[in-house]
Amino acid sequence: MKKFKHIIGALGMLSLLMVVLTACGTRPSLAKQDVLSNDKASKTITWGVKADTQLFGLMDVKDNQIKGFDADIATALTKKVLGKDAKAKFVQVTSQTRIPLLKNGNIDAIIATMTITPEREKQVDFTDSYFDAGQALLVKKGSSIKSVKDLNKSGTKVIGVTGANSVANIKKFAPKAQVLELSDYAQAMTALKSGQGVALTTDNGILYGMAAQNKGYEVVGGTFTKEPYGIAVNKGQEPLKKELNKALKEIEADGTYNKILKKWFGNVSGFNYKEAAR
Amino acid sequence: MQNFIDAYSWINIRFLLEGLWVTVEVSVVSIIASFIIGSVLGVLRYVKIKYLSAVVGFIVDIVRNLPLILIIFFTYFGLPHLGFKPGIIFAAVLAMTIFESAMLAEIIRSGILAVDYGQMEGARANGMSYMQALWHIIFPQAIKKTIPTIVSQFISLIKDTSLATIIVLPELLNHAQIIYGQNSSYILPMFLMIAVMYFIICYALSVLSRVLDKRLA
Amino acid sequence: MVYILTHYWSELIQGLGYTLLSSLIALVFSTAIGTMFAIFEVLPNKAMRIIGRIYIEIFRNIPLLVIAMFFYVIIPMYVAKIDGFTAGTIGLTIYTSSFIAETVRAGILSVDTGQMEGARANGMTYWQAMSKIVLPQAFKIIIPPLGNQFINLVKNSSVLAFVAGFDLMYQANSIASLSLDTINSYVVVGVFYLIITLPLSYYMRHLEKKLA
Questions:
Q1: Which domain holds residue C52?
Q2: What DSSP line would sit under chain A, residue for residue?
Q3: Among partner residues A24, A100, A101, which is closest to B82 by beta-carbon distance?
């Protein structure tokens, strides 16, 4: 009988805990303050960027700085919005951590190879697209995989990254393939090299960067989706979104955008940066 | 062989050492904090204050029985919902502290239980209050008895900081991943190097614990 | 929370299955390997003792995640193709076996040496005495700490998430990023873990009291 009472007590407490946790979980996200005016005061915008992605956001081991197309665009936008002396602060994110961090207010905006999708638009707001990517495949040179159709066989393993839109896409394009989700692009590339999967799928821009770094691997099959990258801000941060859109138009008009594009994609074989110029 | 020589360039080693420093920093702060909190919780579970001890016991049991990765996610992603935004290092320290405090509370509680109850009675008979006896007589002996277990828990803590790479804590494993992510011929050299680094720190601590155990025994 | 449960039920069950499977496999093999190295350590042969010591110290002092990733990344490059689940489970087995070896060794040492000598005097060989007299008593003594190792094993199986091992934690990450409902996804998976570990943990405490 005593044991029974203990069990009932434990169950009661467990359900209480779940109620409390649910209450926390369903509470509307915070970040109700106006991010833009905070940023204006501190002369800093805190950006979530990738640190593991060639060409877009990569940690430079020499000086501990994150460098890439996303990082440069973020810096240029920060200076347009807040003035020449403003600073862009970078917080490392992965595809998995970026949305929770934005919603929690740890970062002001995400510029991290993030595709604008309807599902995500329910959670966050996007600026206009700042880069047009498309999903593609990276395989070992000489692989029998030539396009996404070749993946649609049971037993085929495809590598992706948790939280990336490309994982959701590949499940539609090759429903029979098994998708292995890894935590970031560095891990995904390492898994491909270890032969854990026959192809790595994500956006072409990222894949070209990987192919350039890893001889013996190539991008195949062209793009099979359209992945417009946007900058994500929290819901209700209209002023910041408006300023970012304005700044984006300005850097496109004054040539800053094309300069940054050329800097990162000018020498990437297989990628015609002139087509992407704005 | 060449890839080993290239991989262990000063730039890479320095980057790894920066990661190691974060690992050590997070570990040391969490060890100190969790030892204090774990002791308090362990004593609270032992003394049986109505309701309070039961609630503490229940929370400790929940935390102890969850994977640490989940605790890391809860502190990093969940706490902001309670109106408090931890930075990444702080979140890692907090997660480690919460988890290890619960683990230590259980170790310390069983240590207290293992101390002979006659000691408490003796101390009380000599005019000490219950709390005095607990603090001056029982608690130090409980710690002495459990030192090997406590230290091996601390070693686990150091090793477990590597799990925080999932929220991109810039610790040792994360920095190794960044290096081999940029040049895959460095994968094997990096794995060996960080294994050696973790081993040296953890092994040194376990030797220290053995010495301490002998001294106190 | 209900939404997560109903929409991702099959993923959660699959994750639970892989977590349990990995834990059970690792439990069986780590107990066997751990006991083997524990015996190495108490053998009269010095070389064997050193081998046992080295094995235990190496795998006790390197993070499980590093060991698991080593098997996921390095072994397929140089030795044999193994998938994430296998790599993670091997890592989990080896890591846990070093802890079990320590526990079993302590158990063997706490059995009175007179028992071994008595059994030998009665004509048993060393191995007979070890397996019939010493080990059974040692295991009785170490049931509670061994039980705690098994609970740790279930929790530690969450490293499979890092090597695409399809366990509960892997599914949690996947569900969290698909549903974009981070907290609730992790709460649900946390409850799944507690369903396995809490009863085990209470049973161990009950056993500890009974044996004490």
A1: 2-211
A2: -HHHHHHHHHHHHHHHHHHHHHHHHHSPP---S-HHHHHHHHTEEEEEE-SEETTTEEEETTTTEEESHHHHHHHHHHHHHH-TT-EEEEEE--TTTHHHHHHHTS-SEE-SS-B--HHHHTTEEEEEEEEEE-EEEEEETT-S--SGGGG-STT-EEEEETT-HHHHHHHHH-TTSEEEEESSHHHHHHHHHTTS-SEEEEEHHHHHHHHHHSTTEEEES---S-EEEEEEEETT-HHHHHHHHHHHHHHHHSSHHHHHHHHHHTT-TT--HHHH--
A3: A24
Write out chain A residues lying below 8 Å of B84, CB-based.
Answer: none
- Number of cross-chain residue pairs from B and C with Cβ atoms under 8 Å apart: 97
Against chain A, the chains showing at least 3 CB pairs within 8 Å are: B, C
Measure CB to CB from residue A196 to each of C83, C187, C202 and give the nearest one.
C83
**pLDDT surpassing 80 at residue A3:** no
Cβ–Cβ contact B174 with C under 8 A: no
Tell me, yes or no, whether A240 lies in a domain. Answer: yes
Instruction: Tell me, yes or no, whether A178 and A75 share the same domain.
Output: no
Chain C residues whose beta carbon lies within 8 Å of the beta carbon of residue A181: 164, 170, 173-174
Contact list, A93 vs chain B (CB under 8 Å): 168
Does the beta-carbon distance from B168 to A193 stay under 8 Å? no
Residue-number span of the structural domain to which A194 is assigned: 135-220
- C8: domain CATH number is 1.10.3720.10
CATH number reported for the structural domain that contains residue B51 in this entry: 1.10.3720.10
For the entire predicted model, the pTM comes to 0.91
Q: A213 falls in which pLDDT band (50, 70, 90)?
A: confident
Q: Please report, in tens digits, the pLDDT of each residue of chain C (212 residues total).
A: 888 999 999 999 999 999 999 999 999 999 999 999 999 999 989 999 999 999 999 999 999 999 999 999 999 999 999 999 999 999 999 999 999 999 999 999 988 888 888 999 999 998 999 999 999 999 888 888 888 889 999 999 999 999 999 999 999 999 998 888 889 999 999 999 999 999 999 998 888 778 76
Size of interface A-C (CB pairs under 8 A): 69
Give C201's contacts in chain B (Cβ within 8 Å).
Answer: 61, 64-65
Structurally, how many domains does chain C consist of?
1
Please say if the pLDDT value at position A21 is more than 90.
no
**Whole-complex ipTM:** 0.92
Residue A21, in any domain of the structure: no
- Judged by CB atoms closer than 8 Å, whether chains meet at A106 and B87 is answered as yes
**Cα gap B6→B8, rounded to integer Å:** 5
Give me the CATH number covering residue A155. 3.40.190.10
